[in-house]
Write the C-alpha coordinates for this entry.
Amino acid sequence: MSRRSCSIYTVGIICALLLVLGIGLMVAQVFRTMMHNRLKKEIVLVEGSRVFESWKAPPPPVYMEFFFFNMTNEQEFLNGAKPKLKQIGPYTYREYRYKDNVSMVRDGAMVSAYNTKSFVFMREKSVGDPAVDSITTVNIPAWAVMNKAKGSFWKAPMVSIWMDSTGSGFFTTRTVDELLWGYEDPLLARVAPTNPDVEKVFGLMYKKNGSNDGEFVFHTGQQNSLDYGRVVTWKGESKLTFWKSNQSNAINGSDGSAFHPLLDKNERIYVFTPDLCRSIYMEFEKDVEVKGIPAYRFTPPRSVLASKEENPANEGFCISPEECLGTGLLKVSPCRKGAPVVASFPHFYLADSKYVDAFEGINPQRTHHQTYLDLNPVMVVTLCAKHQSLTFINRKTRVLNETIFPVMFINESVVIDDASAARVHKLLTIVTLGSNFPLIIVGLGGIMLLIVIILLARDRKQKVRQTASHTVLTAFSSLAAKNMSDSVNPHTLTAPCMFVSVTVCLRAEGS
Protein backbone atom coordinates (compact mmCIF):
# COMPACT_ATOMS: atom_id res chain seq x y z
CA MET A 1 0.00 0.00 0.00
CA SER A 2 1.38 3.41 -1.02
CA ARG A 3 1.86 6.31 1.38
CA ARG A 4 -0.98 8.23 -0.33
CA SER A 5 -3.45 5.36 0.12
CA CYS A 6 -2.44 4.99 3.77
CA SER A 7 -3.16 8.69 4.36
CA ILE A 8 -6.58 8.42 2.76
CA TYR A 9 -7.51 5.42 4.89
CA THR A 10 -6.32 7.18 8.07
CA VAL A 11 -8.27 10.35 7.38
CA GLY A 12 -11.35 8.30 6.49
CA ILE A 13 -11.23 6.39 9.78
CA ILE A 14 -10.84 9.63 11.78
CA CYS A 15 -13.72 11.17 9.85
CA ALA A 16 -16.00 8.22 10.58
CA LEU A 17 -15.11 8.24 14.28
CA LEU A 18 -15.78 11.97 14.62
CA LEU A 19 -19.13 11.77 12.84
CA VAL A 20 -20.30 8.74 14.83
CA LEU A 21 -19.13 10.26 18.13
CA GLY A 22 -20.62 13.70 17.42
CA ILE A 23 -23.98 12.39 16.23
CA GLY A 24 -24.14 10.00 19.17
CA LEU A 25 -23.48 12.78 21.67
CA MET A 26 -26.08 14.99 19.96
CA VAL A 27 -28.74 12.30 20.15
CA ALA A 28 -27.93 11.51 23.78
CA GLN A 29 -27.59 15.25 24.62
CA VAL A 30 -24.76 14.38 26.98
CA PHE A 31 -22.99 17.74 26.93
CA ARG A 32 -26.26 19.68 27.03
CA THR A 33 -27.34 17.74 30.10
CA MET A 34 -23.92 18.23 31.71
CA MET A 35 -24.01 22.00 31.15
CA HIS A 36 -27.57 22.32 32.42
CA ASN A 37 -26.77 20.29 35.54
CA ARG A 38 -23.71 22.46 36.12
CA LEU A 39 -25.83 25.57 35.68
CA LYS A 40 -28.40 24.35 38.19
CA LYS A 41 -25.63 23.79 40.75
CA GLU A 42 -24.21 27.26 40.16
CA ILE A 43 -27.52 29.12 40.39
CA VAL A 44 -28.38 28.58 44.05
CA LEU A 45 -28.84 31.03 46.90
CA VAL A 46 -25.86 29.97 48.99
CA GLU A 47 -22.58 31.64 49.88
CA GLY A 48 -20.03 31.40 47.09
CA SER A 49 -22.47 30.79 44.23
CA ARG A 50 -22.44 32.95 41.11
CA VAL A 51 -25.73 34.64 41.92
CA PHE A 52 -25.72 35.03 45.70
CA GLU A 53 -24.04 38.43 45.98
CA SER A 54 -26.04 39.97 43.14
CA TRP A 55 -29.22 38.57 44.72
CA LYS A 56 -28.38 40.25 48.04
CA ALA A 57 -27.46 43.58 46.42
CA PRO A 58 -28.63 43.82 42.79
CA PRO A 59 -26.17 45.95 40.77
CA PRO A 60 -28.54 47.34 38.09
CA PRO A 61 -30.08 50.69 39.08
CA VAL A 62 -33.80 50.61 39.88
CA TYR A 63 -35.92 53.70 39.26
CA MET A 64 -39.25 54.42 40.89
CA GLU A 65 -41.35 56.92 38.93
CA PHE A 66 -44.45 58.43 40.53
CA PHE A 67 -47.24 59.86 38.36
CA PHE A 68 -50.17 61.74 39.90
CA PHE A 69 -53.66 62.50 38.60
CA ASN A 70 -54.38 66.15 39.29
CA MET A 71 -58.08 67.08 39.64
CA THR A 72 -58.68 70.20 37.52
CA ASN A 73 -62.45 70.77 37.97
CA GLU A 74 -63.11 69.99 41.61
CA GLN A 75 -66.05 72.37 42.06
CA GLU A 76 -67.68 71.47 38.75
CA PHE A 77 -67.44 67.78 39.65
CA LEU A 78 -69.12 68.38 43.00
CA ASN A 79 -71.91 70.04 41.02
CA GLY A 80 -72.32 67.00 38.80
CA ALA A 81 -69.80 67.45 35.98
CA LYS A 82 -67.52 64.71 34.66
CA PRO A 83 -64.18 64.79 36.52
CA LYS A 84 -61.18 66.03 34.55
CA LEU A 85 -57.80 64.62 35.43
CA LYS A 86 -54.34 65.63 34.26
CA GLN A 87 -51.40 63.28 34.63
CA ILE A 88 -48.39 64.95 36.26
CA GLY A 89 -45.01 63.25 36.47
CA PRO A 90 -42.71 61.55 36.62
CA TYR A 91 -41.15 62.32 39.97
CA THR A 92 -38.26 59.90 39.84
CA TYR A 93 -36.39 58.30 42.71
CA ARG A 94 -33.41 55.99 42.58
CA GLU A 95 -34.42 52.90 44.48
CA TYR A 96 -31.71 51.13 46.44
CA ARG A 97 -32.76 47.63 47.35
CA TYR A 98 -30.83 44.96 49.16
CA LYS A 99 -31.42 41.84 51.24
CA ASP A 100 -30.82 42.48 54.93
CA ASN A 101 -30.26 40.04 57.81
CA VAL A 102 -29.57 37.18 55.42
CA SER A 103 -29.22 33.80 57.12
CA MET A 104 -29.31 30.19 56.00
CA VAL A 105 -32.13 27.96 57.23
CA ARG A 106 -32.52 24.17 57.39
CA ASP A 107 -28.95 23.25 56.47
CA GLY A 108 -28.85 25.52 53.46
CA ALA A 109 -32.11 24.36 51.93
CA MET A 110 -33.65 27.78 52.60
CA VAL A 111 -32.51 31.32 53.22
CA SER A 112 -34.25 34.10 55.14
CA ALA A 113 -33.92 37.81 54.40
CA TYR A 114 -35.60 41.19 54.62
CA ASN A 115 -36.16 43.18 51.42
CA THR A 116 -35.01 46.66 52.44
CA LYS A 117 -35.62 49.63 50.13
CA SER A 118 -34.56 53.27 50.24
CA PHE A 119 -35.25 56.11 47.83
CA VAL A 120 -33.22 59.11 46.68
CA PHE A 121 -34.86 61.82 44.58
CA MET A 122 -33.40 62.46 41.11
CA ARG A 123 -34.18 65.96 39.90
CA GLU A 124 -32.69 65.44 36.42
CA LYS A 125 -35.18 62.64 35.71
CA SER A 126 -38.20 64.47 37.16
CA VAL A 127 -40.65 67.09 35.86
CA GLY A 128 -40.44 69.33 38.88
CA ASP A 129 -39.66 69.81 42.55
CA PRO A 130 -41.78 67.53 44.79
CA ALA A 131 -41.43 69.98 47.67
CA VAL A 132 -43.05 72.73 45.58
CA ASP A 133 -45.42 71.10 43.07
CA SER A 134 -48.97 70.66 44.38
CA ILE A 135 -51.57 68.04 43.46
CA THR A 136 -55.32 68.22 43.98
CA THR A 137 -56.64 64.74 44.59
CA VAL A 138 -59.00 62.69 46.72
CA ASN A 139 -58.68 63.35 50.46
CA ILE A 140 -57.75 59.81 51.32
CA PRO A 141 -57.62 60.26 55.13
CA ALA A 142 -61.13 61.75 55.14
CA TRP A 143 -62.51 58.94 53.03
CA ALA A 144 -60.74 56.35 55.17
CA VAL A 145 -62.31 57.77 58.33
CA MET A 146 -65.76 57.96 56.67
CA ASN A 147 -65.36 54.36 55.50
CA LYS A 148 -64.61 53.25 59.07
CA ALA A 149 -67.61 55.17 60.44
CA LYS A 150 -69.98 53.97 57.75
CA GLY A 151 -73.06 52.30 59.16
CA SER A 152 -72.47 53.45 62.75
CA PHE A 153 -75.34 55.42 64.29
CA TRP A 154 -73.13 57.66 66.38
CA LYS A 155 -69.71 57.54 64.57
CA ALA A 156 -70.95 58.90 61.25
CA PRO A 157 -72.36 62.16 62.68
CA MET A 158 -69.23 62.57 64.82
CA VAL A 159 -66.98 62.25 61.76
CA SER A 160 -69.10 64.79 59.90
CA ILE A 161 -68.65 67.27 62.77
CA TRP A 162 -64.90 66.66 62.89
CA MET A 163 -64.57 67.19 59.14
CA ASP A 164 -66.41 70.50 59.36
CA SER A 165 -64.31 71.68 62.30
CA THR A 166 -61.01 70.73 60.67
CA GLY A 167 -61.94 71.96 57.21
CA SER A 168 -61.50 68.50 55.68
CA GLY A 169 -63.34 68.08 52.38
CA PHE A 170 -63.73 65.47 49.71
CA PHE A 171 -60.55 66.67 48.00
CA THR A 172 -57.28 68.09 49.21
CA THR A 173 -54.34 69.96 47.68
CA ARG A 174 -50.93 68.85 48.89
CA THR A 175 -47.36 68.89 47.64
CA VAL A 176 -45.93 65.78 46.04
CA ASP A 177 -43.62 65.35 49.02
CA GLU A 178 -46.55 65.44 51.42
CA LEU A 179 -48.62 62.96 49.42
CA LEU A 180 -45.71 60.56 49.14
CA TRP A 181 -43.79 60.76 52.38
CA GLY A 182 -46.44 62.01 54.76
CA TYR A 183 -48.09 65.01 56.40
CA GLU A 184 -50.05 65.45 59.60
CA ASP A 185 -53.71 65.38 58.70
CA PRO A 186 -56.01 67.41 60.97
CA LEU A 187 -58.83 64.86 60.82
CA LEU A 188 -56.51 61.95 61.67
CA ALA A 189 -55.08 64.04 64.50
CA ARG A 190 -58.61 64.35 65.89
CA VAL A 191 -59.34 60.62 65.52
CA ALA A 192 -55.97 59.27 66.73
CA PRO A 193 -56.58 59.80 70.49
CA THR A 194 -59.71 57.62 70.29
CA ASN A 195 -58.13 54.83 68.24
CA PRO A 196 -54.56 53.60 68.86
CA ASP A 197 -54.40 52.03 65.37
CA VAL A 198 -54.76 55.43 63.70
CA GLU A 199 -51.70 57.59 63.06
CA LYS A 200 -51.77 61.36 62.70
CA VAL A 201 -49.52 61.26 59.65
CA PHE A 202 -50.65 60.03 56.23
CA GLY A 203 -48.59 59.42 53.11
CA LEU A 204 -48.77 56.97 50.23
CA MET A 205 -45.14 55.99 50.90
CA TYR A 206 -45.13 56.90 54.60
CA LYS A 207 -42.48 54.92 56.53
CA LYS A 208 -41.42 53.05 53.38
CA ASN A 209 -38.10 54.83 52.87
CA GLY A 210 -35.47 52.60 54.44
CA SER A 211 -38.02 50.02 55.55
CA ASN A 212 -38.81 46.45 54.57
CA ASP A 213 -41.89 44.34 53.90
CA GLY A 214 -41.18 41.80 56.61
CA GLU A 215 -39.18 38.59 56.73
CA PHE A 216 -39.13 36.35 53.67
CA VAL A 217 -37.90 32.77 53.61
CA PHE A 218 -36.85 31.51 50.18
CA HIS A 219 -35.88 28.15 48.72
CA THR A 220 -32.19 28.18 47.79
CA GLY A 221 -32.71 25.81 44.85
CA GLN A 222 -30.15 23.25 46.09
CA GLN A 223 -32.65 20.44 46.40
CA ASN A 224 -34.69 21.33 43.33
CA SER A 225 -33.68 23.97 40.79
CA LEU A 226 -37.35 24.68 40.02
CA ASP A 227 -37.74 26.00 43.59
CA TYR A 228 -34.91 28.51 43.20
CA GLY A 229 -36.00 31.83 44.75
CA ARG A 230 -39.51 30.61 45.56
CA VAL A 231 -41.07 32.16 48.66
CA VAL A 232 -41.69 29.66 51.46
CA THR A 233 -43.05 32.01 54.12
CA TRP A 234 -43.73 35.72 54.54
CA LYS A 235 -43.79 37.19 58.02
CA GLY A 236 -43.61 33.66 59.37
CA GLU A 237 -46.71 32.45 57.50
CA SER A 238 -46.89 30.05 54.56
CA LYS A 239 -50.18 31.52 53.39
CA LEU A 240 -52.16 34.74 53.65
CA THR A 241 -55.26 35.42 55.71
CA PHE A 242 -56.69 38.40 53.83
CA TRP A 243 -58.92 36.57 51.36
CA LYS A 244 -61.76 34.07 51.34
CA SER A 245 -60.29 31.06 49.53
CA ASN A 246 -57.16 28.94 49.95
CA GLN A 247 -56.26 29.60 46.32
CA SER A 248 -56.40 33.38 46.83
CA ASN A 249 -54.42 33.16 50.07
CA ALA A 250 -51.66 31.02 48.56
CA ILE A 251 -48.15 32.51 48.40
CA ASN A 252 -46.93 31.44 44.99
CA GLY A 253 -43.70 32.10 43.13
CA SER A 254 -40.79 34.38 44.00
CA ASP A 255 -40.67 37.99 45.14
CA GLY A 256 -39.70 39.05 41.62
CA SER A 257 -35.95 39.14 42.25
CA ALA A 258 -35.16 35.56 41.22
CA PHE A 259 -36.57 32.93 38.88
CA HIS A 260 -35.42 29.38 38.32
CA PRO A 261 -33.00 28.78 35.43
CA LEU A 262 -33.94 27.23 32.10
CA LEU A 263 -37.35 28.85 31.77
CA ASP A 264 -39.81 27.51 29.26
CA LYS A 265 -42.11 29.64 27.14
CA ASN A 266 -45.10 27.56 28.17
CA GLU A 267 -44.57 28.22 31.86
CA ARG A 268 -46.77 30.49 33.95
CA ILE A 269 -44.51 32.35 36.36
CA TYR A 270 -45.77 33.65 39.71
CA VAL A 271 -44.72 36.70 41.67
CA PHE A 272 -45.80 37.45 45.23
CA THR A 273 -46.06 41.18 45.94
CA PRO A 274 -46.85 42.49 49.42
CA ASP A 275 -48.13 45.77 47.93
CA LEU A 276 -50.99 43.88 46.31
CA CYS A 277 -51.31 41.45 49.22
CA ARG A 278 -51.42 38.55 46.78
CA SER A 279 -49.58 36.55 44.14
CA ILE A 280 -50.02 37.36 40.47
CA TYR A 281 -49.03 35.32 37.44
CA MET A 282 -47.49 36.16 34.09
CA GLU A 283 -47.47 34.39 30.76
CA PHE A 284 -45.11 34.44 27.79
CA GLU A 285 -45.85 37.16 25.25
CA LYS A 286 -42.92 37.33 22.82
CA ASP A 287 -39.17 37.01 22.31
CA VAL A 288 -37.18 40.20 22.90
CA GLU A 289 -33.54 41.22 23.18
CA VAL A 290 -31.99 43.41 25.87
CA LYS A 291 -28.44 44.68 25.25
CA GLY A 292 -27.82 41.77 22.95
CA ILE A 293 -29.15 39.21 25.46
CA PRO A 294 -32.08 37.06 24.29
CA ALA A 295 -35.05 37.19 26.62
CA TYR A 296 -38.64 36.05 27.02
CA ARG A 297 -41.19 38.74 27.78
CA PHE A 298 -43.75 37.69 30.38
CA THR A 299 -46.83 39.82 31.08
CA PRO A 300 -49.88 39.45 33.35
CA PRO A 301 -52.94 38.58 31.25
CA ARG A 302 -56.34 40.20 31.71
CA SER A 303 -57.51 37.19 33.75
CA VAL A 304 -55.23 38.17 36.68
CA LEU A 305 -57.51 41.04 37.71
CA ALA A 306 -60.65 39.80 35.97
CA SER A 307 -64.02 39.85 37.69
CA LYS A 308 -65.34 36.67 39.28
CA GLU A 309 -67.81 36.37 36.40
CA GLU A 310 -64.99 36.46 33.86
CA ASN A 311 -62.58 34.39 35.95
CA PRO A 312 -64.29 32.34 38.70
CA ALA A 313 -60.88 31.66 40.30
CA ASN A 314 -60.84 35.30 41.47
CA GLU A 315 -63.99 34.98 43.57
CA GLY A 316 -61.84 34.48 46.66
CA PHE A 317 -60.65 38.10 46.40
CA CYS A 318 -64.21 39.32 47.01
CA ILE A 319 -64.54 39.74 50.78
CA SER A 320 -68.09 41.00 50.35
CA PRO A 321 -70.37 41.86 47.40
CA GLU A 322 -69.57 45.55 47.87
CA GLU A 323 -65.85 44.85 47.64
CA CYS A 324 -66.12 42.71 44.50
CA LEU A 325 -65.28 45.05 41.68
CA GLY A 326 -65.22 44.67 37.90
CA THR A 327 -62.42 43.45 35.67
CA GLY A 328 -59.14 45.26 36.08
CA LEU A 329 -59.48 46.29 39.74
CA LEU A 330 -58.57 44.69 43.05
CA LYS A 331 -59.66 46.11 46.36
CA VAL A 332 -56.77 45.73 48.81
CA SER A 333 -58.57 47.07 51.87
CA PRO A 334 -58.08 43.82 53.86
CA CYS A 335 -54.33 44.44 54.09
CA ARG A 336 -54.53 48.25 54.34
CA LYS A 337 -56.26 48.47 57.70
CA GLY A 338 -59.64 48.79 56.01
CA ALA A 339 -58.77 51.84 53.89
CA PRO A 340 -60.81 51.75 50.66
CA VAL A 341 -57.76 51.47 48.42
CA VAL A 342 -57.95 49.76 45.04
CA ALA A 343 -55.10 48.52 42.83
CA SER A 344 -55.16 48.38 39.06
CA PHE A 345 -52.81 48.82 36.16
CA PRO A 346 -52.11 52.46 35.19
CA HIS A 347 -54.96 54.34 33.49
CA PHE A 348 -57.21 51.30 34.10
CA TYR A 349 -55.29 49.31 31.50
CA LEU A 350 -56.98 45.91 30.93
CA ALA A 351 -59.97 47.10 33.00
CA ASP A 352 -63.63 47.47 32.05
CA SER A 353 -64.23 50.46 29.81
CA LYS A 354 -66.70 51.98 32.28
CA TYR A 355 -63.84 52.96 34.59
CA VAL A 356 -62.01 54.69 31.74
CA ASP A 357 -65.14 56.44 30.44
CA ALA A 358 -65.92 57.92 33.87
CA PHE A 359 -63.07 60.46 33.50
CA GLU A 360 -61.54 62.88 31.07
CA GLY A 361 -57.77 62.47 30.88
CA ILE A 362 -57.61 58.68 31.30
CA ASN A 363 -56.03 56.99 28.29
CA PRO A 364 -54.79 53.41 28.73
CA GLN A 365 -52.04 52.44 26.30
CA ARG A 366 -50.34 49.11 26.15
CA THR A 367 -46.94 50.60 25.28
CA HIS A 368 -46.84 52.83 28.36
CA HIS A 369 -48.99 50.99 30.88
CA GLN A 370 -48.22 47.31 30.42
CA THR A 371 -46.49 45.43 33.22
CA TYR A 372 -43.81 43.04 32.00
CA LEU A 373 -40.71 41.08 32.90
CA ASP A 374 -37.99 40.37 30.35
CA LEU A 375 -36.20 37.22 31.50
CA ASN A 376 -33.25 35.45 29.96
CA PRO A 377 -34.48 31.85 29.67
CA VAL A 378 -31.17 30.43 30.86
CA MET A 379 -30.34 32.29 34.06
CA VAL A 380 -31.23 35.95 34.75
CA VAL A 381 -33.75 38.75 34.86
CA THR A 382 -32.62 41.14 32.17
CA LEU A 383 -35.32 43.80 32.31
CA CYS A 384 -38.11 44.37 34.80
CA ALA A 385 -40.85 47.01 34.65
CA LYS A 386 -43.65 46.93 37.19
CA HIS A 387 -46.65 49.19 37.08
CA GLN A 388 -49.11 49.69 39.88
CA SER A 389 -51.98 52.14 40.07
CA LEU A 390 -53.51 53.13 43.39
CA THR A 391 -57.12 54.32 43.30
CA PHE A 392 -59.66 55.33 45.89
CA ILE A 393 -63.32 54.41 46.27
CA ASN A 394 -65.79 57.17 47.04
CA ARG A 395 -68.77 55.74 48.85
CA LYS A 396 -72.30 56.87 48.11
CA THR A 397 -73.18 60.06 49.99
CA ARG A 398 -75.65 62.88 49.59
CA VAL A 399 -73.10 64.65 47.40
CA LEU A 400 -71.33 61.88 45.46
CA ASN A 401 -72.24 58.62 43.86
CA GLU A 402 -69.77 55.76 44.26
CA THR A 403 -66.77 56.57 42.09
CA ILE A 404 -63.34 55.03 41.53
CA PHE A 405 -60.81 57.88 41.58
CA PRO A 406 -57.27 57.36 40.25
CA VAL A 407 -54.77 58.94 42.62
CA MET A 408 -51.31 57.84 41.53
CA PHE A 409 -49.49 55.13 39.64
CA ILE A 410 -45.96 53.84 39.96
CA ASN A 411 -43.55 52.80 37.24
CA GLU A 412 -40.83 50.74 38.84
CA SER A 413 -38.24 49.81 36.23
CA VAL A 414 -34.83 48.23 36.03
CA VAL A 415 -32.56 47.52 33.05
CA ILE A 416 -29.48 45.34 33.37
CA ASP A 417 -26.28 47.40 33.58
CA ASP A 418 -23.42 47.01 31.11
CA ALA A 419 -21.09 45.19 33.52
CA SER A 420 -23.76 42.62 34.40
CA ALA A 421 -24.70 42.27 30.72
CA ALA A 422 -21.06 41.49 29.87
CA ARG A 423 -20.94 38.77 32.53
CA VAL A 424 -24.19 37.29 31.27
CA HIS A 425 -22.87 37.29 27.70
CA LYS A 426 -19.75 35.44 28.86
CA LEU A 427 -21.73 32.82 30.80
CA LEU A 428 -24.16 32.32 27.95
CA THR A 429 -21.25 31.83 25.54
CA ILE A 430 -19.77 29.16 27.81
CA VAL A 431 -23.11 27.42 28.17
CA THR A 432 -23.75 27.58 24.42
CA LEU A 433 -20.32 26.26 23.48
CA GLY A 434 -20.53 23.50 26.07
CA SER A 435 -24.03 22.47 25.05
CA ASN A 436 -23.12 22.51 21.34
CA PHE A 437 -19.75 20.77 21.66
CA PRO A 438 -21.09 17.71 19.78
CA LEU A 439 -21.86 20.02 16.86
CA ILE A 440 -18.21 21.07 16.85
CA ILE A 441 -17.19 17.40 16.69
CA VAL A 442 -19.64 16.78 13.83
CA GLY A 443 -18.25 19.87 12.09
CA LEU A 444 -14.70 18.54 12.38
CA GLY A 445 -15.93 15.21 11.04
CA GLY A 446 -17.51 17.02 8.11
CA ILE A 447 -14.24 18.82 7.37
CA MET A 448 -12.37 15.51 7.49
CA LEU A 449 -14.96 13.99 5.16
CA LEU A 450 -14.35 16.80 2.70
CA ILE A 451 -10.60 16.17 2.90
CA VAL A 452 -11.16 12.46 2.18
CA ILE A 453 -13.26 13.31 -0.86
CA ILE A 454 -10.58 15.69 -2.18
CA LEU A 455 -7.81 13.09 -1.63
CA LEU A 456 -9.84 10.39 -3.36
CA ALA A 457 -10.57 12.68 -6.29
CA ARG A 458 -6.88 13.62 -6.68
CA ASP A 459 -5.83 9.97 -6.37
CA ARG A 460 -8.31 8.92 -9.03
CA LYS A 461 -7.18 11.74 -11.33
CA GLN A 462 -3.52 10.71 -10.94
CA LYS A 463 -4.35 7.08 -11.73
CA VAL A 464 -6.16 8.18 -14.88
CA ARG A 465 -3.10 10.19 -15.99
CA GLN A 466 -0.77 7.27 -15.30
CA THR A 467 -2.98 4.91 -17.34
CA ALA A 468 -3.06 7.37 -20.24
CA SER A 469 0.72 7.77 -20.16
CA HIS A 470 1.24 4.01 -20.20
CA THR A 471 -1.08 3.60 -23.19
CA VAL A 472 0.70 6.28 -25.22
CA LEU A 473 4.14 4.85 -24.41
CA THR A 474 3.04 1.38 -25.49
CA ALA A 475 1.66 2.70 -28.77
CA PHE A 476 4.78 4.63 -29.66
CA SER A 477 7.02 1.72 -28.67
CA SER A 478 5.20 -0.52 -31.14
CA LEU A 479 5.45 2.11 -33.84
CA ALA A 480 9.17 2.54 -33.30
CA ALA A 481 9.79 -1.16 -33.50
CA LYS A 482 7.89 -1.36 -36.72
CA ASN A 483 9.75 1.60 -38.26
CA MET A 484 13.14 0.09 -37.50
CA SER A 485 12.24 -3.21 -39.13
CA ASP A 486 10.78 -1.77 -42.32
CA SER A 487 12.81 -0.52 -45.26
CA VAL A 488 10.45 1.99 -46.65
CA ASN A 489 10.82 5.40 -48.25
CA PRO A 490 13.14 7.94 -46.70
CA HIS A 491 10.32 9.79 -44.95
CA THR A 492 9.87 6.92 -42.45
CA LEU A 493 13.34 7.50 -41.07
CA THR A 494 12.06 10.51 -39.21
CA ALA A 495 9.73 8.39 -37.03
CA PRO A 496 12.31 7.43 -34.39
CA CYS A 497 13.14 11.07 -33.89
CA MET A 498 9.47 11.88 -33.34
CA PHE A 499 9.13 8.95 -30.93
CA VAL A 500 12.03 10.17 -28.80
CA SER A 501 10.59 13.65 -28.69
CA VAL A 502 7.13 12.51 -27.60
CA THR A 503 8.48 10.15 -24.96
CA VAL A 504 10.54 12.86 -23.34
CA CYS A 505 7.54 15.17 -23.24
CA LEU A 506 5.25 12.60 -21.62
CA ARG A 507 7.78 11.71 -18.95
CA ALA A 508 8.26 15.33 -18.09
CA GLU A 509 4.52 15.81 -17.67
CA GLY A 510 4.01 12.70 -15.60
CA SER A 511 6.91 13.23 -13.22
Summary: The first strand starts at residue 62 and ends at 71.
